[in-house]
C-alpha cells in the first residue's frame, strides 16, 4: 500500500535524536535522565503522529481524541523500540513514594502495574520488532475507533485497516520464513492496554509536569508542534 513508505519516513528518531543513552540498556541512568528520556518518548509519539499520512488531515478534535486515548500504548511501543532501561523503574517508584507516601496496599498495586509495564516492553523486545514494524504497530494503535466523539469513525477504521494491511504485506515480504510473525505482532497490541496510563504518568511525568494532566500536555504538543516548551523544565 501507499501508506507504508510514509509511515516509516515519519519516524522522528534515528536514534541519534535521543543521543546514545537510548541504545545502551546497561547504561546506569539517573532519575533525571530517565524522566527526560520519557518526556522525549512522549513528545516523539506526538511528533510522529503529526508527520504520518492521513493523521494531520483529521479534524483537530479527532487528532486530540486519538492521542489522548492511545498515548500510553504508543509510549510503551516507543520504550521498547529504544530499549528504555527498565531496571530503573523500581528506583523511580521508590523516589516517587518517598515524595508522596502511599498506603501499603497501594504500593503493592503500584509495583504490580510497574511489573506489567516492564513485561510488555520485554515481550516486544523478545520479538525483535524492526522499525518498520513499529511504525505500522503504532499506526494500528493510533487509528482506533474506540476514541470518544470521533467525527468520522468509518474513516478512522479504514486507516487502521490500511495500517494493518501495510504491516501484513511488509512482514510477508521481509520475513517469509516466519509465517506466524504477523499474528504474533498483532497479538501484542491488546495487552498494551493493560499498562496503566496513570501509572506511567505517576512514574515518569509527575516530576516533570507536577499537576498538569498529561492530556493537556498532549493537546499542547499537538497544537504547538516543534515549538512546544515543556512546563517547568527545558528539554532541548
UniProtKB/TrEMBL annotation:
The UniProt record lists the keyword Transcription regulation? yes
Tell me which UniProt keywords the record has, alphabetically: Nucleus, Receptor, Transcription, Transcription regulation
Give all residue intervals belonging to the NR LBD domain: 1-225
| PROSITE patterns membership | NR_LBD
Return any one Pfam family short name: Hormone_recep
**PANTHER family attached to this UniProt entry:** NUCLEAR HORMONE RECEPTOR
Q: Quote the protein name from its UniProt record.
A: COUP transcription factor 2
Amino acid at each position: 500500500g501507499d501508506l507504508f513508505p510514509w509511515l516509516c519516513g515519519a519516524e522522528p528518531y534515528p536514534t541519534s535524536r535521543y543521543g546514545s543513552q537510548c541504545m545502551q540498556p546497561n547504561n546506569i541512568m539517573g532519575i533525571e535522565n530517565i524522566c527526560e528520556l520519557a518526556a522525549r518518548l512522549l513528545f516523539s509519539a506526538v511528533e510522529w503522529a503529526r508527520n504520518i499520512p492521513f493523521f494531520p488531515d483529521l479534524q483537530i478534535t479527532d487528532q486530540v481524541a486519538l492521542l489522548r486515548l492511545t498515548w500510553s500504548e504508543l509510549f510503551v511501543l516507543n520504550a521498547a523500540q529504544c530499549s528504555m532501561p527498565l531496571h530503573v523503574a523500581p528506583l523511580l517508584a521508590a523516589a516517587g513514594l518517598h515524595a508522596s507516601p502511599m498506603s501499603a496496599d497501594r504500593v503493592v498495586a503500584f509495583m504490580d502495574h510497574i511489573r506489567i509495564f516492564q513485561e510488555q516492553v520485554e515481550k516486544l523486545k523478545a520479538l525483535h520488532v524492526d522499525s518498520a514494524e513499529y511504525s505500522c504497530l503504532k499506526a494500528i494503535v493510533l487509528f482506533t475507533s474506540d476514541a470518544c466523539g470521533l467525527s468520522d469513525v468509518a474513516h478512522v477504521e479504514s486507516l487502521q485497516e490500511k495500517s494493518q494491511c501495510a504491516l501484513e504485506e511488509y512482514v510477508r515480504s521481509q520475513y517469509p520464513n516466519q509465517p506466524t510473525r504477523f499474528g504474533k505482532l498483532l497479538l501484542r497490541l491488546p495487552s498494551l492496554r493493560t499498562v496503566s496510563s496513570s501509572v506511567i504518568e505517576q512514574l515518569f511525568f509527575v516530576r516533570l509536569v507536577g499537576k498538569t494532566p498529561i492530556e493537556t500536555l498532549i493537546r499542547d504538543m499537538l497544537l504547538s508542534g516543534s515549538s512546544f516548551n515543556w512546563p517547568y523544565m527545558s528539554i532541548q
